[in-house]
Design brief:
Layout lengths: L12 H12 L6 H38 L8 H18 L1
Length: 95
């Protein structure tokens, strides 16, 4: 490992127990290895979230440009809210 920095972290008891259990069970060689794996997963998830956010911003910009150019359908706030709630519910159950 090229650059290594030692950090001290504080975790809730259940998280610390899960990490220790993973090491004791032989899934990982050390607690540091567990944390590194978790951080790699977090970085991937965060990158996906940022991509989704950028796509959402692009969609909003496109929608605003369509409104400005007069390219729009009748606005139905209730329908849009219902669709958004459904998309959010579908996303929650798949995550």
């Amino acid at each position: 490992m090229a650059g290594v920095e030692r950090l001290t972290i504080t975790l809730p008891t259940d998280m610390a127990a899960a990490i220790k259990s993973a090491v004791e069970g032989g899934d990982y060689a050390s607690t540091s290895e567990v944390i590194r794996a978790a951080l790699r997963d977090w970085k991937l998830k965060r990158a996906l979230q940022l991509q989704e956010l950028e796509a959402l911003r692009a969609d909003i910009d496109k929608g605003l440009a369509d409104v400005a150019a007069g390219r729009m359908k009748t606005f139905d706030a209730a329908s849009i809210i219902a669709r958004g709630r459904k998309l959010l519910a579908d996303r929650s159950t798949s995550a």
